[in-house]
């Protein structure tokens, strides 16, 4: 947006960008639009593809490093390759779907954007359902194609690793999801988009890299969830007691991390708290005038 395109309201405020208005919490009119259903379908397909490729990568890594099956430590992509698979798929899928659904592919991301009034409750719930169904179908397809390896090597399910307590696992999920959702907010910030024309094009890149970096740090702890749909889909198809016992970690941790990231970006970095305080002061001043 150039200065010549600024509205009178924006010019008076001294801003060279326009923040979109908050989305209504209960925007039921969306249910009458094809664009809404198209976005939900896009989230389903994106999460389906995400889980299919990444879980196959995890199972391939475990099968190729299985010494009992003739594998070796250097025979696979390694943890670095797994991290690249997750980060690379997010980069690809966000790039492909951002213009249709926003490219969430993660209930924690959707939750954070909902808290920031960027998506309605109707859209948030629909996205989360679509993401969980997509993840389940994606892992299900892996099991259909690779049933022997799938059952032998854990189905890519997230579980707390031996030697780590619950607090460490939850903390890893909170911090990891904070990094991801904070990156999403920063990469899609309209203030940055207005001043750096390349930001919208490159937004999927830092988001994908954040997923890559978090996986490097937390795979040894929890297998890296930071995405409740990913953990849920794998748990449903693998259906292991340990995976279900630890499942709450991969919902509570990501949702808390997303909430902290939304609060930090909206109320601290974008001064939402000060704006709200100024608005209250202004209203009180008018009442006493």
UniProtKB/TrEMBL annotation:
GO annotation, cellular component aspect: membrane
Transmembrane segments: 36-60, 92-115, 127-146, 166-187, 199-221, 248-269
Subcellular location: Membrane
CDD domains, A to Z: MIP
Main location: membrane
Family under the similarity heading: Belongs to the MIP/aquaporin (TC 1.A.8) family. PIP (TC 1.A.8.11) subfamily.
Record protein name field: Aquaporin-like
């Amino acid at each position: 947006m150039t200065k010549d395109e600024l509205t009178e309201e924006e010019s008076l405020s001294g801003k060279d960008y326009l923040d979109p208005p908050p989305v209504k919490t209960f925007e039921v009119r969306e249910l009458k639009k094809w664009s809404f259903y198209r976005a939900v379908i896009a989230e389903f397909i994106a999460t389906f593809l995400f889980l299919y490729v990444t879980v196959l990568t995890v199972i391939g890594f475990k099968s190729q490093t299985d010494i009992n099956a003739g594998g070796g430590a250097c025979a696979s992509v390694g943890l670095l390759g797994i991290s690249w698979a997750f980060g690379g798929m997010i980069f690809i899928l966000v790039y492909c779907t951002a213009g249709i659904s926003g490219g969430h592919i993660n209930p924690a991301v959707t939750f954070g954007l909902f808290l920031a009034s960027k998506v309605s409750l109707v859209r948030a719930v629909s996205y989360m359902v679509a993401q969980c169904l997509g993840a389940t179908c994606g892992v299900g397809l892996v099991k259909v194609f690779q049933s022997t390896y799938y059952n032998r090597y854990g189905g890519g399910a997230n579980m707390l690793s031996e030697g780590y307590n619950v607090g460490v696992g939850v903390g890893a999920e909170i911090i990891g999801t904070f990094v991801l959702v904070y990156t999403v907010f920063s990469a899609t910030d309209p203030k940055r988009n207005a001043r750096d024309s390349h930001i919208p094009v490159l937004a999927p890149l830092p988001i994908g890299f954040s997923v890559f970096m978090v996986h490097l740090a937390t795979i040894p702890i929890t297998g890296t969830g930071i995405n409740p749909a990913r953990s849920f889909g794998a748990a449903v198809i693998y259906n292991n007691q340990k995976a279900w016992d630890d499942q709450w970690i991969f919902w509570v941790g990501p949702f808390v991390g997303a909430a902290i990231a939304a609060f930090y970006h909206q109320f601290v970095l974008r001064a939402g708290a000060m704006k709200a305080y100024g608005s209250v002061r202004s209203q009180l001043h008018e009442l006493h005038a």
